[in-house]
Amino acid sequence: xxxxxxxxxxxxxxxxxxxxxxxxxxxxxxxxxxxxxxxxxxxxxxxxxxxxxxxxxxxxxxxxxxxxxxxxxxxxxxxxxxxxxxxxxxxxxxxxxxxxxxxxxxxxxxxxxxxxxxxxxxxxxxxxxxxxxxxxxxxxxxxxxxxxxxxxxxxxxx
Length: 158
Hints:
- By secondary structure, this protein is of the alpha/beta class.
- It is about 35% helix and about 20% strand.
- It has helices at about 20-30, 45-55, 70-80, 100-105, 120-130; strands spanning about 15-20, 35-40, 60, 90-95, 110-115, 135-140, 150.
- The protein has a 7-stranded mixed beta sheet with strand order 2-1-3-4-5-6-7, with helices on both faces.
- α1 packs across α5 and α2 (about 45-55) packs parallel to α3 (about 70-80).
- The radius of gyration is 15 Å and the shape is globular.
């Protein structure tokens, strides 16, 4: 049985943006802001985790290097919590070494986007996450030549 939202009642999905740089939070917020989402912001890892627990968001955009808990720590907590199984996580970070990217994907990130990034990359990711279905884990870099797809083991490619 499929339920419908009654006319006039809108169910907003929550997006959490966590970055210690206020200018980055502002850019990301402005890029993904929509009538379909409630966007909340955190300035550090501890605040991010508290907001994730409170709101059970559809999407979390995490900086890796933050005061308090790192983005990797928050990501691991999200992936370990069964009530957050549907939450998608995008790591937004300046850490662009192969080992950083691998660590992020192994920890469970759905996407890895390196700074500086194009807001268009974020719009593309946001629209891709808004659609249902299977999709590979991706790492996007600021230069298109560095874009690559990483598929987790045991999962067929789409």
